[in-house]
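Hi C.,

You asked whether I'd gotten around to modeling the 233-residue construct. I have! Everything is below, sequence then structure, no commentary in between.
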Amino acid sequence: LSAARKMSEEAAAASGGGESWGDAMQKASDEAVAMILDMFGLSKLGAGQDDDGGPEGGVRGVGTAYYFGDGGINGTAITQAVRTEFETFYDSVMGFVSAVHWSEPWIIALLSFHFLLLVAAVATRKRNEVQMGLFVFVLGCVYLAETLNKLGAKHWKSFSKQNYFDSRGLWMSCVFSLPLLLIAVVMLIQSLSSASSMLVKVKRMQLQKHVREVSKQLDGAAATAGGEGKKEK
């Protein structure tokens, strides 16, 4: 704020001299932008400049790009970096999906197990005992994922076309544990929603009871006052 105030004062002083107010404000704005870029370690590459900071060589033509680093050949454009990371992630996901034979019976059975477990978790959301049992069962399956991965690595030839059970457990984590954890999160959200609804219901019942008690007290006071008035007459 002090730096911005100082720039404003300099612009005002320049407007009182020979420099126009618009030029002074433009100069102050450029200095502010330069300060922000320097603060975040960014460099500016404008239109009419190439990656070396010289005249445009057909690489950049319109707009301004902000770079991490010195903005030279070794600098990395933010937009290009984000695009590259997204493309890398997308290629990794698609490579993982294409490497799995989803038509294998045991994989279909595994996906059906996850689907039925999710349906059961949603259908029994109002039964606390069942929800607790399902939650413990889901967490138990996640806990046993490492053991199941080791068993699968030993006996995969008896039920699978290829060995998905690597030593790091990547496939097991993505296809087995991750859906179970998502189901557990769904159950947890349902439990929190049910608890909040129960609190609201209990509070409403307390308020209604309090209103009835106050109403009875007022009716009793009114009846007592009416009886005393009749006696006085």
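If it helps when you're writing up: Confidence is low (pLDDT under 50) at residues 43-76.

Thanks,
B.
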